[in-house]
Amino acid sequence: MSFTIKKLAIVLLLTLTLQAQTGLTQKYLVSISPETGAQDISADTSIEIEYNLILSKDSVSKRAIVLKNAKHKKIQGQVSIKNNTTLIFTPNEELVSGEYKVKVKQIKLQDYTRNTRSVRYAKKFCSYFYDDIKECRLYNYATRVKSKKIKYSFNVDDGKPKVISLSLNKSNIQLNENNTTTISVNAKYDDNTTLDVTNDVEWILSNSNIVSIDKNIITPLSEGTTSLQAKFKNQTTIEISLTVYKEINGYKLPPEPDETLNNSTLLGIDVNDNGVRDDVERWIYEKYEDKHPVHIDIAMQEGKANKKILETPDKAREIHDEVDRAVHCQSYYKYYAKYFNESILLKDSVANEYFRSKIYFNTQERMDAYLQYDKLLSGGVYTLPKLGERKVKCDFNTSKYGK
User: CA spacing 20 to 30 A to 48: which of 114, 278, 308, 388?
Assistant: First the structure.
């Protein structure tokens, strides 16, 4: 054998030995990305290791893939699984130019084509208890195989502009539950250029039950509030608030309050600070949505009056006249105004016992305050205003309903 042939044989042997050590020739490995020795790789690259078998999820951890730079500094990132067969490492930051070394630990895979004695035994045993034997832990254990460890390196030197910040074109979005809205994301690069990257971002929602986002279109799913962020090339926008609200006849309702928090105090929750508890306000607008709007005005006045009862039930006689203004206003539209406009005839009383006991004074503490107020009125003498004069007791603009 000539010297040249011997030299080529030695080189070939060393090459095969190196590949065997790095695990790049294992039979379960389909591909790696970036490839070993690759040059000019993008700074925002992710590492992908694809196998031809399903990955056993319990063998995959944040240490499954380790990435280090030329100075042996470990690069932090997230390990995930794609399509059950591909292991992905996404760096938490863009990579700077230079050489990077990759280590992939031994991974357990599921080879359901194996036909050993132990596999046949496990298959028979699991079939008694599972319709799908792949749900059986014993069968999955018997069909496991192990990959080889992988070691290789690649170089980063893309020379492309880097993203330095992301920005949304909206903040603190308020969205009617029956409407949609659009949003866009701009990326600013270190060469002072700006690019619309809306279609390429990852949307981050704290509550995915509130809205869905398809590219740049936000579609409401339910009432509530969620935080929203966009992520692109390891950059993230500031967090904004997105609220979906209900609207009735052009009026924006306050959000449905948490029942426990709302009922933990006498006055409850009133986020729009209009003097009516939010659960009461929502009930009023939903109940009278299809009726003449005077129903809502009178019921809201009654809601404000009932708040005074909760605040000072021990001063019943001092606040009586102010509390009863809503009752007098209601009686005007029920008995007097009907002669002028039948459409605003109140067929049901908004100041009835149901509204008070079930809607407004809906806890024992609130009912106790009302009963205290009612008891202190006993023995008093109260004068009713004439029907025609009761209109002035209304706390809303009555001229919008005619004379």
Answer: 114
Report phi then psi at 292, rounded to 5.
-60, 135
Q: pTM of this prediction?
A: 0.58
Q: Are 211 and 244 in contact (CB under 8 A)?
A: yes
Q: Distance between CA 224 and CA 244 in Å, rounded?
A: 5
What pLDDT does residue 352 have? Answer: 60
Query: Which tokens go with 28?
Result: 């379960």
Which ranges of 161-223 would DSSP assign to H, the alpha helix? none
Nearest residue to 363 (alpha-carbon basis) of 300, 277, 285, 302: 277
Alpha-carbon torsion, ordered 145, 78, 88, 197, to 10 deg: 160
- Side-chain-side CA neighbours of 166 within 13 Å: the count stands at 22
Judged against a pLDDT cut of 90, whether residue 61 lies above it is answered with: no
Band (pLDDT 50/70/90 cuts) for residue 279 is very high
- Greatest alpha-carbon pair distance for the chain in Å reads 128
Mean pLDDT across the chain = 86
User: Omega before 34 cis (within 30°)?
Assistant: yes
Using 50, 70 and 90 to split pLDDT, how confident is the model at 8? very low
Residue 361 in tokens = 């004074």
CA distances from 23 to 16, 38, 172 (A): 11, 17, 51
